[in-house]
Amino acid sequence: MSLYHLIYESQATRPFSEVELAHLLQQARQHNETYGLTGLLLYTPEGRFLQVLEGNVEAVHSLYFLHIARDPRHRHLALLAGGALERRRFADWRMGFRVATAEKLLDLTGHVDTTDATFLLPLLPNLSNSLLDKMLDYVQHTLPDVLLEEKPH
Predict the structure, then answer these.
(1) Domain coordinates of the chain in residue numbers?
(2) Distance of CA 42 to the CA centre of its chain
(3) Can you say whether residue 27 is alpha, beta or left, with left for phi > 0 and alpha for psi between -120 and 50 degrees?
(4) Residue range 100-151, pLDDT digits in tens
(5) Is the pLDDT of residue 75 over 80?
(6) For domain 3-140, which CATH number applies: 3.30.413.10, 3.30.70.100, 3.40.50.300, 2.30.42.10?
(7) What is the rounded average pLDDT for all residues in the chain?
(8) Cross-strand pairs, 23
(9) pLDDT value for 30
(10) 96-99 sheet: strands from edge to edge
């Protein structure tokens, strides 16, 4: 089976409470366990999401295009990157999670304005692996969020 990944960002229609985030993560982790998906979800208190999904191309596309893109709880979806993957970066997480600052998301995406649709063009040849590695490093080297932390399985 060939691996595929997809990275997107979006804006929540309103900020999520800790209870709502916990429920969202529970649903995501159950779905991902069933379909062999792994990944990471970053969320800012201002309501921005940045998510990485990894797995079989059909499962990733189905989740993104049939569920995530149609979810009314967020808007302004922007597909940042996607493509073949040599190995999973988040293999131990059905859905890892961190609350991040807006500044950290800008740092992870290379200090660029992601509202401009052309921002990835000069970065595309090297973006995927370096961005995934940065995100994994961020998750592994920050203090855990006790409520929403998933233990690797």
Answers:
(1) 3-140
(2) 6
(3) alpha
(4) 776 666 666 543 454 554 544 454 444 456 666 666 666 665 544 443 445 5
(5) yes
(6) 3.30.70.100
(7) 77
(8) none
(9) 93
(10) 74-85, 3-12, 48-56, 38-43, 96-99
Residue 61 is encoded by which pair of tokens?
A: 């596309």
Contact 91, 29 (CB under 8 A): no
Q: For residue 45, what pLDDT is reported? A: 85
Specify the pairing of strand 38-43 against strand 96-99: parallel
- CB 139, CB 96: distance < 8 Å: yes
Q: Which long-range contacts (CB under 8 A, 24 or more apart) does 134-141 make?
A: 134/108, 135/40, 135/42, 135/52, 135/89, 135/108, 136/40, 136/89, 136/90, 138/98, 138/100, 138/104, 138/108, 139/40, 139/90, 139/96, 139/98
| pLDDT level of residue 31 (50, 70, 90 thresholds) | very high
Give 35's pLDDT tier (boundaries 50, 70, 90). Answer: very high
Cα–Cα nearest to 148, from 16, 9, 21:
21
Antiparallel, parallel or unpaired: β 74-85 and 3-12: antiparallel
- Euclidean distance between CA atoms 93 and 120, whole angstroms: 27
